[in-house]
Design brief:
single chain, 18 helices, about 75% helix, two-stranded antiparallel sheet, about 475 residues, mainly alpha
Length: about 475
């Protein structure tokens, strides 16, 4: 069944990007367009029906001789998983745009253009059933992320944006080459067609070309996700963007990680070592993320590294490969989007109010901003997996999944990393809020921007809601995963 709402999820942010770029001299026009589109973005996935959209109106064709189905058009598929992720991204977009518009008297047309191009690109990554279309939007997303960091007012931001772009010049061609190999052996770039060709035995799964395509796309996925060896550059990107932008960049990372790994899982789960690779790199990310966070004195880098460690939990669930484990991994992805965004904005608010980001020079802030201190504390506890918050639910599911798959070592690792995350966060929290204020710290008399406090309250509601009622999203995810397997 064709669904005309599906392409609008990508087209509307794209049109918005082009409009704000065209009207970049008209400040009020940019702000009006941005806020209207930010309201529309979460509504479309809610009112859309599930189904497929074939661009150009070309329906699938059946070869009468072989009975094989071909998809000649670029196909977008919209299911419950896409509804959850795109809906949540929409809420985040609305809050980010609200913070940006309230923070700056004069909005930057090119900057808003980059935000909406990034939103269109990650939405397309989630929807597309075409691996070449995935690559095109993967490239757009990488460039948008570079631009967002390059446009930031934080020192050394150009250097970080340039490093990410240079690495992208290695990661992206590798993905493209992998896609080229897949096209050569299957004759298609449609993911469903490729999967059907593998299931029907028309592809030799242990052939060097097929294994090479797996390795190349896997490497590109590590770059997109910021998993080792790209973890330092990814956390650096977060620390050099503004707080609202870091929240959005982190969501972009989580969604691109999830959408590409699900595509890889569908195609390469027949490769014996594919799931082992996923688990190994995810475990390394969990360990490196939390150990590197422990040594940071800039709290933006600290959250950046913790975020990388949390990505490891997502990969772990998907790498275990059972329906329950993949559901847990995807639930962890949703929780991470919310919790990390909340931390970036909460700590960004503290940086704005105190004029300081080095934890060694901070202290006693709870006396000045108690409400913000409480909001930040709850977000941090959710990340560390403290009950009854959302992070606890997804991590508990991952521990159960590791045990039921016969890997108690992975359960133990997940518990240790969660405890270490808790220690890192509490240590940072204590130095910023609870210890006596250093004499050198002058706290300016500033009021917290209402838009940032509002965003923190919305995130807090989602954190508590998903912690108390995880079934709101896990039932739908489980249904999707069951269909995929």
């Amino acid at each position: 069944m064709m669904n005309e709402f599906i392409p609008l999820m990508v087209i509307i942010p794209l049109i918005c990007a082009l409009l704000v770029s065209s009207f970049s001299k008209f400040n009020k026009t940019i702000k009006a367009i941005a806020i209207v589109v930010a309201i529309i973005v979460p509504i479309i996935p809610i009112i859309s029906n599930y189904g497929l959209h074939f661009f150009g109106g070309y329906p699938p064709m059946i070869d009468n001789l072989t009975g094989i189905v071909y998809h000649p058009a670029i196909t977008y598929s919209f299911d419950i998983l896409q509804k959850i992720f795109i809906g949540l991204l929409g809420i985040l977009v609305f809050l980010v745009v609200l913070i940006y518009i309230n923070k700056y008297k004069k909005a930057s047309g090119p900057y808003v253009f980059l935000l909406f191009m990034g939103i269109a690109a990650v939405t397309a990554l989630l929807l597309t059933d075409d691996i070449f279309n995935m690559f095109v939007f993967f490239e757009i997303l990488a460039l948008a992320q570079v631009g967002i960091v390059a446009a930031s007012p934080i020192e050394n931001h150009y250097e970080m944006a340039l490093k990410y772009m240079i690495l992208g010049a290695i990661g992206s061609p590798m993905i493209l080459l992998g896609i080229g190999f897949l096209l050569a052996i299957t004759g298609s770039v449609n993911i469903t067609d490729i999967v059907m060709a593998i299931k029907a035995g028309r592809v030799v799964v242990n052939s060097p070309v097929f294994l090479m395509s797996c390795g190349l796309i896997f490497f590109g996925w590590l770059y997109a996700s910021g998993l080792p060896p790209f973890h330092t550059i990814k956390s650096g990107m977060y620390s050099k963007a503004e707080p609202h932008a870091s929240a959005l960049l982190q969501a972009f990372t989580v969604i691109s990680m999830v959408s590409i790994v699900l595509i890889m899982f569908r195609i390469y789960s027949v490769v014996p070592f594919f799931e082992v690779l996923l688990v190994v790199f995810s475990a390394i990310a969990m360990i490196l993320g939390v150990t590197m966070a422990l040594t940071q004195t800039d709290f933006r880098r600290m959250i950046g590294f913790l975020a990388v460690g949390e990505l490891g939990f997502i990969g772990l669930g998907i790498g275990l490969g059972t329906e329950f484990a993949i559901t847990a991994g995807l639930f962890q992805a949703i929780n991470e989007m919310v919790v990390t965004a909340s931390l970036f904005i909460g700590f960004g608010l503290i940086a704005y109010l105190s004029g300081e980001t080095d934890t060694r020079r901070m202290g006693g802030l709870i006396g000045y901003h108690p409400k913000i201190a409480i909001l930040v504390l709850i977000s941090g506890l959710a990340m560390a997996g403290v009950p009854p918050l959302n992070g606890f639910q997804s991590k508990l599911m991952l521990i159960q999944a590791s045990l039921s798959c016969g890997y108690p070592e992975l359960s133990l690792l997940a518990i240790i990393v969660s405890i270490a995350t808790f220690v890192v966060f509490i240590k940072t929290y204590y130095t910023m809020f609870l210890r006596p204020k250093p004499n050198t710290l002058q706290i300016p008399d500033k009021k917290a921007p209402k838009s940032m406090v509002f965003a923190l309250v919305i995130f807090l509601i989602i954190i508590v809601l998903l912690g108390l009622f995880p079934g709101i999203v896990t039932n739908g995810i489980s249904q999707f995963v069951g269909g995929m397997l």
